[in-house]
Specification:
Layout: E1 14-19, H1 30-47, E2 49-56, E3 60-67, H2 72-91, E4 104-108, H3 112-122, H4 124-127, H5 142-147, H6 158-161, H7 167-177, H8 184-196, E5 199-200, H9 203-213
Parallel strand pairs: 4-5
Antiparallel strand pairs: 1-3, 1-4, 2-3
Length: 231
């Protein structure tokens, strides 16, 4: 089946996932994680893309971001991907590809859909059995969004800011979102949307995207289930 064309609109959040080729590790050491985040910050600023949430797993990456102009996400991911591969190959004395083809992405509607993606991304290490609590995983945005850790990488989305008036109250409200386990339906819907390049939102939102782009935003095909380590 031919893949759907990537939908890219400014000022609409996108959930992005990029995996290592053949599920191979993309990060070996602490310096690798730090290098990726440094280049993510550089290219997100260069291309005017706001980063809201992220997690760096052993063999894949999740981002939640909002581009301010057309094709900004594509340019950011191209620059980031190339630069990190150069660094990674040089540092680990290897050659060849690192990423599994092009990154995958989907548009995300504001309101509760967006906050569900926040949770989905930052709970990745918990689903993979790496930690019991997202607080304990150092390579995600959870400590920033939930605990107030200072970061020049993350930009707070308006939907996140509506959780409360003050920073402290907002962080408490945000942590409360993680007290309830995500349902299988939510996880499957988010996973399917990003893997197939669909649109995550209600019918009205999907209809608006179709009207703006003329692209298909639904898929009736089923793929094989993925393990938590590949979420």
């Amino acid at each position: 089946m031919a893949r759907l064309p990537r939908i890219d609109l400014p000022n609409i959040p996108q959930h992005i996932i990029q995996r290592g080729n053949n599920r191979q590790a993309c990060f070996y050491h602490e310096k690798d994680f730090k290098a990726y985040l440094n280049w993510l910050k550089y290219y997100s600023l260069k291309e005017d893309v706001a980063i809201h949430a992220w997690v760096l797993m052993t063999n894949h990456v999740h981002l939640l971001c909002t581009p301010k102009k057309p094709k900004a996400v594509s340019f950011m991911m191209q620059g980031l991907g190339r630069r990190y591969v150069q660094y990674f190959n040089y540092s680990h004395q290897r050659t060849g590809t690192l990423w599994e083809g092009r990154y995958k992405s989907c548009l995300v509607q504001n309101s509760n859909y967006l906050l569900e993606v926040y949770r989905y991304i930052e709970l990745n290490p918990v689903r993979a059995g790496m930690v019991d609590n997202p607080t304990d995983y150092p390579w995600s945005s959870y400590q920033i969004n939930a605990l107030g850790k200072v970061s020049s990488l993350v930009s707070y989305h308006d939907q996140y800011l509506t959780l409360a008036q003050s920073d402290t109250e907002r962080q408490v409200s945000y942590m409360a979102l993680f007290e309830e386990k995500m349902t299988d339906i939510n996880e499957q819907t988010i996973r399917k949307s990003v893997n197939k390049g669909l649109v995550l939102g209600d019918d009205k939102f999907k209809s608006t995207i179709v009207a703006l782009t003329g692209n298909k935003v639904n898929s009736g095909c089923r793929g094989r289930p993925r393990s938590a380590i590949d979420d």
